[in-house]
Amino acid sequence: NLCTAALLAAVLVCGLTCASTAAAEEAITEEYESISNANEHVQAQDDYARSQKRREITEHDDDQNEPPPSSSSSSSSSSSSSSSPPSKDYFKEELVIRPLSSGDIYASFQFQTRWDTDFFAPGKKVSHYRLFPKSLGQLMSKFSVREMHVSFTQGYWRTMQWGQPFLPAPPGAELWVWFQDSVADVDGAWKELTNVLSGIFCASLNFIDSTNTVEPTASFKPLGVGNVTHQRFLRYAVLPREIVCTENLTPWKKLLPCGSKAGLAVLMKSEKLFHSSFLSLAVHIRPVCQDWGCKGTAWELRQTVNVVFDLHTTGQGKREWSFFKMFSRTLTEACPLATSSKVYIDVTDNPQGELFELNPAAPSLTQAVVLGDRRTYAVYDLMASGTFGLLRSLNVLLRWKTPVDMLRPLLHGERYVAGYGLQTGEIHTLIYNNHPYRAFPVLLLDIVPWYLRLYIHTLTVTSKSRENKPSYIHYQPSKDRLRPHLLEMLIQLPPNSVTEVTVQFERALLKWTEYTPDPNHGFYVGSSVISALVPSVVAMDTSYTLEHPLFSTFFPCKEESSYFVRVYTEPLLVNLPTPDFSMPYNVICLTCTVVAVGYGSLYNLLTRTFQVEEPSPGVVKRLANMIRYLRGVPLL
Amino acid sequence: MGLLSDPNRRRALTNLLTRLNTPLCIVCYLAGVAWFMGLAFEPFTLRTYMSENAMGSTMVEERFLAGERALVTAREFAAQKKKMGGMPVDWLVKAMQARGLEVFTQSFSRTLPFPDENKERYMVHGTNVYGILRAPRAPRTEALVLSAPCTPGSSNNQAVGLLLGLAQYFRGQMYWAKDIIFLVNEHDLIGMQAWLEGYHHTNTTGMSWTPLEGRGGSIQAALSLELSSDIITSLDLVLEGLNGQLPNLDLANLFYAFCQKIGVLCTIQGKLQRNDWDSAAGYSQAVQTMLLMVLKQASGRPWGDHGLFLRYHIEAASIRGINSFRQYKTDLTTVGKLLEGMFRKLNNLLERLHQSYFFYLLPSLSRFVSIGYYMPAFGLLAAILLLLVGMREPFGPGVLSVLTPLIISHLTGVALYTLPIMAQQTAVEHFPVSETEAVVLTAIAIYTAGLALPHNTHRVLSGEGTEEGWRVLKLIAIFYMAVLLGCTALINFSLGFILALTLVPVAAFITPHVPRVLSALVMVLLSPGSTLLFSIFVYQELQEAPITLLEGWNLFLSVISQGILDHNLYGSLVYPLISLLVYPCWLLLWNILFWK
């Protein structure tokens, strides 16, 4: 039985079926929503029943002061846990290395900490932490977080050259959180959470406020188990300007059970990691099933580092890589706290071993279906003592010769600003479907800050120079200084096509205190997010009874014929009309002069009463007047 | 402001202005010209200085050494170009790919409104090749451009060689924070226009091009490289862009700073700076440099491939290698170092170049005249127009008699703007001329016919021209001219100043009572067309390439055709400005002369 984690996939599939069957466009969105709601409802009920049952059991056990039965079914664990704390946890680490066709090399670290505990059990406060980092655990319980995904990325993932990453991330910082349905004030919790995370990761996440937070309706569905899928409990924000540096890496490493003292994390030396073309740190927390039957939930913390080393700047142009060359370290031991510690090397392009050389030779090979492709991996198990050899260190060396070709990934996107001048502009988003004969739908999510005023009536979607009407559009207009534009669309991509989404905008003139200290640099617009179920070349692995490498299990897969992909486009840098900030002084001087000279004299002319001055009277007349005045007679 | 509110003193002032009107006008004119000529005098100008902090304090170390290899590449490129008989697109794509760039191509085509005889082209098809060096630390938000035109013949191969050499060297460096786009454009400005329009997805000139597939975000600065010899003696900086736009002065400062640092001779307008400012020769050199800049800016045409970037608010300049008979030679490695240094500094930029001046004149690379200093020269000329307005006596309504010449002059202007291109086919059929000649000669014919047309037309409607009528017309013409020249000078000072220099005296002296034949001759000599002719002679004289009258006339014809082409191809505004506004304005004055 499959857990409910694949809701997103379900939503997408519903969208696809609706798009292809329903005739009237208006009906589509309604139907789309109703179907997906129904689907969610069924799953939710199912899940609810399950969780009720579990709660009953737990409560029952609590009454008897006995630990809850460990659901992973081994008798040894239940016997051993009679005296120790009830919840069990384990830690797995793995490193995948994939030589890219461009000659660059991609290294992806994945660290999984799993803990069979419930942060939200009523009346029971979790206070004893072993492998799970306490800072994150407390955060989860305090803010009732159900799922949290945060990533810090430097550089841009070049899909055209590198293919799809195991874990996509947009440039800058990205944070999305699902709260428990018990949270009443989601915005308040979100605000506090971002500030706490900002402290934990030494990042500027505290710059997340209502002007860059959105609630996407369909693009970000929970990746873990759960029954809440209303976007009211979801918050999503991107800070495209965030710079990633060692100060973010250090707190990230501290969350690992072994720190950077042992295991794979010793390879993460910042001077090498940051000497790369792409670096992405991420932390994902989500509830997962404890076992195949999904009788209880466990918390999974996944920490990942994705890094791409450049052929020309790091590799000196040679297709020859080793641990030492990449990380200036070799591996000497696994993390003692880990239950599994493995290094995978993608050797798919090299079935016979003529193009590819691995040294030392791999002890074993394994196959895994990742991103719609069956790949072969050489596996080094760090728990096995034979791996390290005589030198007691592992320094895997790769050499390969393959022709360089631009990849044609099935799905990729790009974005740019068209036009010139500082008044208007146009955002173009291009989505490529390179599949030769299959059409598939994608969800496009665009978040545009309020200071670019979108003219939504100019929104056009064209594929193969014909209008392509999206089957679902969710648009939330911006409010000045309060919230950004949110545009979500479900678009059907015809096979082998480029779909172009354009929308015009006007650049707002900000108040002078709203400009950043470097206004002439421009203002960032975060990446748009393209989420899709891409038709797979090989049957995807949907059975959950087998042990899979970690990197292949992040996005749950529900169907055999397609797999989930998320693509981020590049962020945009847009110049807004900017005053010359050295001008205020000149302006003040000029205005004062104009007011003083121009207005003053004009006012003078307008208000003065002009009189014809009479010639002064003679002495006799003056005397006579004085006498008349004294007499009280009218003057002459 | 007792002056205005006191009727007595106000009257006195008016009387003074009226009485001394003519001497005042003459004094203003002479003062304006003198002020302008004084701008080149060194003690009156400011020394250039780097305003941008990001480029000032951090000196970079240049390590480019592959000048020889760049020369080898240049020879290979030349051979390929010869073999292909044009741009070797495939070779360039491969060469850029081998250097680790993301390479894209863009093809474009454009049919010119009439054949360009200078460059011998009519139906233009071409391909731009560009490679993007992706910055490791930036998410494709900002970019810098280094471009080299692929010109037919044997010129400019070294520029492409150096461009590829720099691409290879830059690719191995880690410090790039902005994507760097290496562009080889075919058919110089047309290719550049196609690429820029494609990059910004605009279409201002009706060119057809294929959309670009790779971009690097918003372009911050661009340099265009022109090198045609293995060694050079000096580098020339070209700044004048479309419609007289100039890049930020900091870009020129950057070039000058690196020339000083590396020890390369640098020139502007092809003129080397002299140190003896107090001698007559030194001053004359500065004046010549500044006048050349003024003439080039007034022409409103892009003087290098960089000129088209400026429309998109991208600071750009062309760097041209000169190989003369001087002793001191510089090799390609040094030029490469210079470009490396400039790009590293531009890479350090946190904001767009905005700190320094956008409006300036350069009497030499180390001295500049800012807008605050040169505007009074124009202001003094414009003051004459105000003085002339002030002297007019009150008049009664005579709108109808004035409306007719106004409309007719403007219709002539519209004809001058539209007919040459529309009527070229007819002209070619009836006269033994080529298309280009047809266009130019039609333009000149309409211009000349305009002189005969409008005068006396008011008589058809309102009988004899009255004294009052021409006064009203003159007032309107002067207002018109004041607004027109004022606006032009704000956008393109040089054009405004040159026009003011010739048109203001006409406006000042013209009445129906002056000797007609002599005045007509003077007016024709001071008309916009003659101004162009004189400018050509002056320009050639300043370039130290004097020409005979016949050559001058031929050049005049080709300049007119270039002006029309610039307007149609790149959107230069000088031709419409002259034909639709300045020429009708001058015709109004011409009308006054023949009022009776």
Write up this protein.
The complex is a heterodimer of chains A (636) and B (596). Chain A has an eleven-stranded mixed β-sheet with strand order 5-6-4-3-7-8-2-1-10-13-12, with helices on one face. A five-stranded antiparallel β-sheet of chain A has the order 15-16-22-18-19, with no helix packed on it. Chain A is α+β, with helices and mostly antiparallel strands and 636 residues long. Chain A is elongated, with a radius of gyration of 33 Å. In chain A, α1 packs antiparallel against α2 (25-63). Chain A contains eleven helices and 26 strands. Chain A has helices at 7-21, 25-63, 75-80, 134-143, 159-162, 186-201, 246-254, 270-273, 323-327, 583-607, 619-631; strands at 89-99, 105-115, 145-154, 172-179, 213-214, 234-239, 278-289, 297-309, 320-322, 340-346, 356-359, 364-370, 373-381, 397-400, 411-418, 424-433, 440-448, 452-463, 466-467, 472-476, 485-493, 497-507, 523-525, 529-535, 562-568, 572-574. Chain A folds into three domains: 87-400, no CATH class; 411-574, Immunoglobulin-like, CATH 2.60.40; 585-636, no CATH class. Helices cover 23% and strands 30% of the residues of chain A. Chain B is an alpha/beta fold. Chain B contains 22 helices and twelve strands. Chain B has helices spanning 2-5, 7-19, 21-38, 53-56, 67-84, 89-98, 157-171, 188-200, 249-262, 280-299, 332-348, 371-391, 399-422, 424-430, 435-452, 457-462, 467-491, 493-509, 516-525, 528-542, 549-570, 574-593, and strands spanning 46-47, 102-116, 121-133, 142-150, 179-186, 208-209, 218-226, 234-238, 265-268, 315-322, 360-364, 367-370. In chain B, β11 (360-364) and β12 (367-370) form a beta hairpin. In chain B, α17 (467-491) packs antiparallel against α22. Chain B is globular and about 80 Å long. The chains are: A alpha+beta (636), B alpha/beta (596). The A-B interface holds A 154-156, 158, 160-161, 171-172, 240, 275-278, 310-313, 316-317, 404, 414, 416-422, 426, 428, 518-522, 524, 527, 570-575, 578, 580, 597, 600-601, 604-605, 608 and B 1, 4-5, 97, 100, 102, 134, 136-142, 171-174, 200-202, 215, 217-218, 311-313, 350-352, 354. Chain A: Residues 71-87 have a biased composition (Low complexity). Chain A: It comes from Scleropages formosus (Asian bonytongue).
